Write the structure tokens for this entry.
Amino acid sequence: MIEMSLPSINFSLCNRCGQCVSQCPENALVMTGQGPAFTDPVNCTYCGTCEHLCPTGAIRAPLYVSWRAN
Ligand code: SF4
Ligand code: SF4
């Protein structure tokens, strides 16, 4: 089973600077009137670049660690 995660975007924090859109290595984002949106979500590799460069913390790509006890 393939599970896909996408960065979350908090539009109330986004100032629409466009850095995440212009710097995404996969061109997965496009700017809209509300803020960035995913053009083709399957292109997102969850690399975290957008989170790293966002000046307001509006886009987040957190990593979670989970484990299973056998
Ligand atoms: S996590 Fe990486 S590939 Fe996905 S939208 Fe952000 S910069 Fe682009
Ligand atoms: S980098 Fe952050 S503030 Fe700038 S457009 Fe993207 S989400 Fe919004």
About this structure: The chain has one domain: 8-60. The longest strand covers residues 29-31. The pocket of iron/sulfur cluster (ligand 1) is lined by residues 7, 24, 26, 28-29, 44-50, 61 (CB under 6 Å). The chain has a mean pLDDT of 92.
